[in-house]
Amino acid sequence: MIKLHDKYFKPFISAQQIDNAISRLTQEIATDVGDEIPVFVGILNGSFMFASDFVKKYPKPCEITFIKLASYEGLKSSDDIHRLIGLTQDLTDRTVVILEDIIDSGKTLYEVYRIFKNEKVKELKIATLFFKPEAYKKDYKLHYVGIEIPDKFIVGYGLDYDGLGRDIPEVYQIKMTQHMTNLVLFGPPGAGKGTQANFLKDKYNLVHISTGDVFRHNIKNETALGMLAKSYMDKGELVPDQVTIDMLNAEVEKNADANGFIFDGFPRTDAQAEALEKLMKDKDSEINAMIALEVDDEVLVQRLMERGKTSGRADDADESIIRNRIKEYYKKTAILKDYYSARNKYFGVDGEGSIEEITERLSEVINAL
Ligand code: AMP
Fold first, then answer.
1. Which CATH architecture has domain 181-368?
2. Residue 230 clears pLDDT 80, i.e. is over it
């Protein structure tokens, strides 16, 4: 990751990928142009690196020149008027290939066509190293495209963020969310995840998402999701993965500005862990740690029976359902310890003792992250 001014950027397109794209472009263009000597016209500033590497690879003789996109303050309002300047030589009857570093909305292309309108060139072709199809608003044909990219801000290889980044030999993409802390609070039913998450969310300013709580909320409000979940929850079984994953994604999206999340009761299966990894990646983030509360099974049963006296939860009221939930945990969920251990993200914490003692143990792990 790199920082330019106030923003963070992550690696996006390697120097090798750029090199491959340029090799392909030179081959395609050389084949089409044949034995003619084309005039390549680079659009400054962004295309200086592309144009340089391009002509070095171009297998036949060629000419290269540059024009520059200049912006002037508009007379009215704050609109800028962009004009291309620097086209001085006679291009009559020449095959001209524009070399653009990136085409997004197509505004620059509009200018290119405007200034070439009165030039009597034989042919005008457009080659761009990067192209953002989602942002493109014009109808001009793009004859040669190096790499299509999503509509996200990029820097490097000639492209800048407020002056910086042009010199970087690879391309970086802006990071959308900065520095989140995301924790998975893990452990069998009754381990105290919910209780501890309540303290930790305030202490570290994180959003607490308990999938069990969200299901219970849906059941209370008699939503379709609630009705579906209830049939599984009442037996102490897991709700199907896709239902749970879709719900979790929606809960995360509701909190787009969060500093980070405490996931409690999720993930519970491998498929959920993978879905969570993807979701975090889409947010340019990651799970920093799985912190597991380790508690003896018989202590769990006692705690849940005790909670059942006041919680009103059907799945806390019956010892056989409680034991089934613990069984489900060992059968389907405990394996996630391996998933996070393999990524050096598993931290076991003794979950027996006073609430304050356990919060203290969890905090030590979080502070050391
Ligand atoms: P909890 O409040 O975490 O003990 O969850 C209560 C019940 O909700 C579980 O026994 C499951 O039936 C359901 N549930 C909660 N989270 C999940 C999940 N991540 N995957 C599947 N089912 C879940």
1. 3-Layer(aba) Sandwich (3.40)
2. yes
The DSSP annotation for 237-306 comes to PPPPHHHHHHHHHHHHHHTTT-SEEEEES---SHHHHHHHHHHHHHTT----EEEEEE--HHHHHHHHHH
Whether the CB of 239 sits within 6 Å of ligand 1? yes
What phi-psi label fits residue 160: left (phi over 0), alpha (psi between -120 and 50 degrees) or beta?
beta
- Fold classification of 2-174 (topology level): Rossmann fold (3.40.50)
Measured CA distances, 178 to 33, 209, 219 (Å): 47, 20, 35
**Residues of the chain above pLDDT 70, percent:** 95
Cβ–Cβ < 8 Å for 164, 4 = yes
Contact yes or no for 358/346 (Cβ under 8 A): no
Answer yes or no: 313 catalytic.
Answer: yes
pLDDT in tens, 276-333: 999 998 888 899 999 999 999 999 999 999 999 998 888 998 999 999 999 999 988 9
Looking at this protein, which amino acid is placed at residue 142? L
Q: Please tell me if the domain spanning 2-174 has the same topology as the one spanning 181-368.
A: yes
Closest by CA to 45, choosing from 3, 4, 91, 85, is: 85
Q: What is the Å distance from ligand 1's center to 181 Cα?
A: 23
From the candidates 132, 268, 283, 303, which is the catalytic residue? 268
Measure 237 CA to ligand 1 centroid, in angstroms: 8
Instruction: Give, rounded to a whole angstrom, the gap between the first and last alpha carbons of the chain.
Output: 18
User: Has 193 been annotated as catalytic?
Assistant: yes
pTM to 2 decimal places: 0.61
